[in-house]
Specification:
1019 residues, 40 helices, flat
Length: 1019
């Protein structure tokens, strides 16, 4: 049995039934269906179901108040679908605010609930397929819509796994069309699912395709094996009733940044981590609890801050917590600000406004509250004054201290936390969130926070597509000091660079000062600067994006900036909103004069941060010392230059700035100028064995892959001289292209192998630049990509659409070819570009005379395929006939039973037949539609031919009229309409004496033709 999209749809419906959902057909419940539940095709809510549930769930609310709530839900008041969606989500999760007069005659406020979150079975669960929505002039029919209480909360778009062109990308693109054409459906949407039957991803209205993520488990925290279909796992994991309600209420949030609204849904690792943390918190805060909630280790870039937001939102609502107070704790001002900003953007899910302590006295004031509150502070604000014991602020049991990066023991963080915070909050419970694992030697962290609650390591994050791999390149810039005198990296160095709130931070220790002086010599800075400029320019040629330079002092940051501008004056601009490079640092009026242009307040730094996050903004590089090494998230950042001693989790957090997912970014690159490779290895020692394979991968591995792919592609051009493409004149370069294409196309499966191999080579090349081996083959790669691009553009490619080299990875071209040049195969081959619909004798003659036989064959095959595709939209029988003829000829060629020259002759004859067929309708006096039905009557069959042309033309004309009369909206999926049309067609055929033994086949063909040609007639 052939797998089709319908098969996938039916299997999905069966899975929903297994979960306890009712199933109904979209056409059946349409306004003109046998069991109507909609007033018109404009309606996207099943109002009868919603009315019934409102009454059942809110028995004490008067009818007029329920009607008021119904109106608020069904009549969005914003022209913006995402604004409406946010408003609806609030009503869905928090209830609809209503007012009514009670029995005593007083006006009272109350809530009308749209769902019962506590008891799933009190809700109405329904999945509908082929749910047609008409809005304006647009008629769209999503595959599956999931209704809860009559509200369309999820939409699923399915593609056929057997169709290589039906991909997750096409499903995602279809959603973008739906959002534009039928926006009313998405005012109520909670989540979107795309699937090709095997792979499956879930996202939201605002998710880019890279943020449609898999759901890896169906009933717990164990990741399912690969042999289980992703779609089945996702449906069981997301749409199990209690889990779906939990996701909707606690794991969907809206980040509001000015006028921009971004909707996010938790990934599976965040969902399970939060629920495990909530359960552990309830236990730890109970009278029997030990106040140690535990530690959540989710690798950097996997959404740790967002996990903390989801945790806060859910624990606040837990009845056992009795309106808790949450204290968010960091150890640096910039981290406090970054985390506060993340929470401030997501106030909807927190149901309150977070507060940030500005100083010690403000912190004490904030903590002297009776209940509730989300407070942000740094650990330094808990330091007692003048050695006096820190005062008691609250002895409540429902205070939860949430420490970000909880294991920084080198700052007296653990001891200070245990001493000072327990003095202030003796009955508080503690939970830690970290992006790096607790070091093996650290015994204090588990003692204060407890054991791991949840682990999501680097390997799994890479597998899930939550992060990309990080590659390492050593470019050690020598320090003018004997190796045995070179200071080793130790905790003292980190103390100086990390403790930004310490007054002693500028009183550099002698050891650090000596190293800083040697690293920051003018000679060395100039050496590093020149290397960075060359390296980064070559990186940008390979992969569009941004970079970060990490220096060990503010002085070096400023000096390196000045050195960069000597090489690239155009990168500078005094305005924050212009220029390609900026220094990010704090300071004061007492700093040297050359520091002053780079000292910016928080607002100005935030403005530059937004520029760095915007891939289209011209800013390309930032120079930092400590700021932005944690918490900073710019997905388009792909290269980090490190010229600063770092170790342990500090190093791991820093390098994770380049592991964010961005479009088709293949990985991030760390460039080391100070020799931190050993420290990187030590830091990785605390990771799982699997994680070590996916972090800090030496660039040599990417280079090795690149050279391997290079050898594969080069072997395909063995014996072919393409040197003129690199060294020749423009005319000579152009002449190489058709010969090169001919060389590839003459090989068995050469076209497919070249496309795949050059894509893989390009991705490895982008990660390897500017390694010397990458630069050595740069011109060859440029040639290979040009041939690939020309074949992909001009020749029919079976398989997935062209999207491998999308936005992040550019076309790497040689110095001889500009990056935006697109070679047209017709001009390269010396042909005039034809009008495909004509295929004139002159053009066919030119093709026959081309010296490159295989290239001529491919060109002609592509043109005929394009013509057949165009006809397939109108004339089923004709397109099938020509497609079969073309396929037979090509198969004979591929099996080498005929030569290219003979194939070309046969295809030219086919082209002439297609050209003649196009004009046949005019000769018969038939319209395009009438000719299509005429062909469907099998007019070449001898038994049919005897009826004569006039009779057959009459049948064709009456068929068009009969079909037009019968078709309605969704008629192709309504069996009642199809049955009536089938009867009408058979009656017509009998009326005119159509051969009885041919009638059944002709009827089926006519119906297929009607479905193809008249799909829009029902509008």
């Amino acid at each position: 049995m052939t797998i089709t999209e319908t098969v996938v749809e039916q299997v999905t419906i069966d899975w929903f039934r297994d979960l306890g959902y009712q199933y109904l057909s979209g056409p059946d419940i349409a306004c003109d269906g046998p069991y109507p539940e909609r007033g018109s095709y404009v309606d996207v809510i099943l109002e009868g179901r919603l009315h019934s549930v409102l009454v059942a769930l809110n028995p004490d609310i008067p009818a007029e108040a329920l009607e008021d709530a119904f109106r608020k839900v069904t009549r969005p008041d914003s022209p913006s679908p995402i604004a409406n969606n946010r408003q609806f989500h609030k009503m869905l999760t928090e209830g609809v605010d209503v007012e009514y007069r009670n029995e005593e005659g007083r006006i009272v406020g109350d809530k009308v609930w749209l769902m019962d979150f506590a008891c799933p079975e009190r809700n109405d669960w329904l999945v509908v397929n082929q749910f047609t929505v008409i809005e304006g002039q647009q008629n769209r029919r999503p595959d599956l819509v999931v209704f809860v209480n009559g509200l369309p909360l999820a939409v699923i778009e399915l593609k056929n796994p057997a169709d290589e062109n039906a991909t997750l990308k096409t499903a995602y693109n279809q959603f973008q069309t739906y959002k534009m054409d039928i926006p009313s459906l998405f005012s109520y949407n909670e989540m979107l699912v795309i699937s090709d039957g095997t792979e499956a991803r879930v996202g939201t209205l605002t998710s880019g395709q890279e943020w449609f993520l898999p759901w890896r488990n169906s009933n717990g925290t164990t990741v399912e094996q690969k042999d289980i279909l992703e779609l089945e796992v996702l449906l069981n994991g997301v749409f199990e009733k209690s889990r779906f309600l939990d996701l909707v209420r606690h794991f969907i949030l809206f980040e509001v940044d000015g006028s921009k609204i971004t909707k996010k849904i938790a990934a599976y690792h965040q969902y399970h981590a939060v629920n495990a943390a909530v359960a552990a918190t309830v236990k730890a805060t109970s009278p029997e609890g030990d106040k140690r909630v535990g530690v959540v280790w989710h690798t950097q870039g996997a959404g740790k801050s967002l996990t903390m937001v989801f945790y806060a939102g859910k624990i606040i609502l837990h009845p056992a917590m009795e309106n808790p107070t949450l204290v968010l704790l960091t150890d640096r001002n910039d981290l406090d600000q970054q985390l506060f900003d993340n929470f401030a953007l997501a106030q909807d899910i927190l149901r309150q406004e977070p507060k940030q302590a500005t100083n010690r006295e403000h912190l004490r004031k904030l903590l002297r509250i009776a209940s509730g509150g989300i407070l942000f502070t740094t650990i330094q604000k808990f330091l007692p004054e003048n050695g006096i014991r820190f005062p008691l602020l609250s002895d409540r049991h429902n205070i939860v201290v949430i420490a970000d990066e909880a294991h920084r023991s080198q700052y007296d963080f653990i001891d200070g936390l245990a001493r000072n915070m327990r003095d202030a909050l003796p009955n508080a419970s503690f939970i830690g969130f970290t992006g790096t694992p607790i070091e093996k030697a650290d015994r204090s962290t588990p003692a204060v926070f407890g054991d791991y609650i949840s682990i999501y390591d680097i390997q799994q994050a890479v597998i899930d597509g939550a992060t990309v791999r990080i590659f390492y390149e050593g470019r050690l810039a020598k320090i003018e000091l004997k190796e045995n005198e070179r200071p080793h990296i130790d905790p003292e160095f980190e103390e100086v660079t990390e403790s930004e709130e310490e007054n002693v931070r500028e009183k550099l220790k002698n050891k650090w000062a000596r190293l800083e002086a040697m690293v920051g010599t003018e000679k060395r800075i100039n050496l590093v600067t020149k290397d960075i400029v060359n390296h980064f320019e070559q990186r940008l040629e390979a992969m569009d994006g941004k970079g970060m330079i990490v220096c060990m002092s503010r002085r070096i940051c400023v000096d390196l900036y000045d050195a960069l501008l000597k090489l690239h004056p155009s990168w500078h601009h005094q305005d924050d909103d212009k220029g390609a490079i900026k220094v990010i640092m704090t300071g004061s009026a007492g700093d040297p004069a050359n520091f002053q242009p780079h000292i910016r307040n928080k607002i100005r730094r935030e403005a530059i941060k937004k520029r760095m996050r915007d891939p289209s903004d011209p800013i390309k590089l930032v120079i930092v010392r400590d700021m932005w090494l944690t918490g900073f998230d710019a997905p388009c950042l792909h290269t980090m230059y490190i010229d600063k001693p770092m170790r342990g989790h500090v190093l791991m957090q820093a390098i994770a700035r380049v592991n964010r997912v961005f479009r088709d970014k293949p990985g991030g690159l760390i460039v080391d100028y100070l020799g931190i490779a050993d420290e990187l290895k030590k830091a990785l020692a605390d990771y799982t064995e699997g994680s070590r394979r996916d972090t800090g991968i030496p660039q040599e591995e990417a280079v090795a892959i690149m050279l391997e792919k290079y050898e594969i592609v080069s072997s395909m051009f063995h014996g072919f001289d393409y040197s003129k493409f690199i060294t020749g004149t423009p005319a000579e370069r152009l002449k190489v292209i058709p010969s090169a294409m001919e060389h590839i196309l003459s090989q068995e499966d050469g076209k497919t192998r070249l496309l795949q191999s050059v894509t893989e080579l390009s991705q490895a090349f982008a990660l390897s630049v500017p390694h010397i081996d990458a630069l050595r083959i740069r011109d060859d790669v440029g040639f290979f990509q040009t041939i690939r691009a020309t074949i992909a553009k001009n020749i029919r490619i079976p398989g997935k659409p062209e999207e491998e080299l999308d936005l992040a990875i550019r076309q790497i071209v040689s110095r001889a070819v500009s990056s935006d040049e697109v070679v047209d195969i017709f001009s390269a081959a010396g042909l005039k570009k034809p009008d495909i619909s004509i295929l004139s004798d002159e053009f066919l003659s030119e093709l026959q005379g081309m010296p490159h036989r295989n290239l001529a064959l491919e060109v002609l095959q592509k043109l005929l395929n394009d013509e057949i595709k165009a006809r397939a939209r109108k004339n089923l029988v004709q397109s099938r006939s020509f497609a079969e003829m073309l396929e037979r000829t090509i198969q004979r060629y591929q099996s080498r039973t005929i030569e290219a020259a003979q194939v070309i002759l046969e295809l030219i004859e086919l082209a002439k037949e297609m050209r003649e067929a196009k004009s046949r309708g005019e000769k018969l006096g038939l319209t395009e539609e009438e000719e299509a039905f005429y062909d469907a009557l099998e007019v070449n069959d001898s038994a049919v031919k005897v009826l004569g042309d006039e009779t057959l033309k009459t049948i064709a004309r009456e068929l068009v009229e009969a079909v037009r009369r019968n078709v309605t909206i969704d008629w192709t999926v309504r069996e009642s309409v199809r049955a009536k049309l089938r009867t009408t067609v058979k009656r017509l055929l009998r009326k005119y004496g159509y051969p009885p033994d041919k009638q059944e086949r002709a009827t089926l063909t006519v119906l297929e033709q009607a479905e193809l040609l008249c799909k829009d007639w029902g509008n």
